[in-house]
Sequence to fold (361 residues):
Amino acid sequence: MRTALTLIVSVCISGCIDDAATVCVVDGVTHQVGETFPAGDGCNTCTCGADGTAGCTLMGCITSCTWLGATHAIGTSFPAGDDCNTCTCQSNGAVTCTEKECVSCTVDGKTYQPGDAVPSPEGCGTCQCDTRGQVWCTDTACTCFYGGSFHAQGETFTDLDGCNTCTCMAGGGVACTDRACVTCTFDRQTWQVGDTFPALDGCNTCTCMADGQISCTEMACPSGCSVETPCAENTGFCTRPDAPMTCGICFRPEDTCQTDADCVVVGVQQICMPLDCACSGEHVCVPGCTADSACAEGERCADDGHCKPKPCSAAAACPTNFTCEAGGCQRKTCTASAQCDGFCVGGGCFGEAGTCELPKP
Fold:
């Protein structure tokens, strides 16, 4: 803390002593005895004494403030540096600033401050960023502003939900379809309509259709391994077609669960499932199934979001290579491919052969 030493000194300017000692005259100005008035330096003060002389303080005068490396004179105002607030240099050398919340507008990846003009790409309107961070245009007859981008009148574009379609209308309005968005779930992954992805056999291709169903090609896949045709030396082990992909590294998830009760998300059904390639068998929360197509062959999607064996009363109600046991479809066990309608792989019957893959770490 700086301590100002105040000295009272008596100064006498020629002609300042009044014979009656009732006034002081300083710089041509008359002051009454006991009157206090500013000194000529603008920061000290003087007092008229009974003997007609003026005594003044001798403090060091502050003439400026420093803000962000720049010097400003006492009483001046200047930008705070955040593009929206203003600061003022006070007489004590301190800087005070307004504390308005700064807002801006972002259009086509460029940021504009309130009051800035925002160009219309079609050149037919005048737009401006307002103090709420919104862009307003005086004439939007040829463009629409939607989702942070401009669109020309008549232009059709994908809505923000990724499945509906919007059109820029005359007058700047945007009209969008209101269809329920359809997705497909396959092998515990969600796909958008039109997405194409590999089938589980590794050689065919599947597509998510507009009705939420999955359509896959049915090409004959290259021969794999089975009980009768094991993998060649150093090419790995014969992996069942329904086994998860092998891993090159294990994972230790940060968020784990023990039961479905640990996976409560508002509006989304999640279930607790083992994580493929987990280092220590950890379970994590994943979206539950919503349709039978999200489950493996011979399974159905239960109300709790888990895939469970398809109910049956006889083997005829189950897919090929399945049998009906305890009221549910179970894959046939085997020791030879002759017992299956296809191949015996890893003790189970499948319509396709297994694949040779290296074991998990």
User: Anything to note?
Assistant: Confidence is low (pLDDT under 50) at residues 1-20. Residues 66 and 72 are 6 Å apart (CA to CA). The radius of gyration is 42 Å.
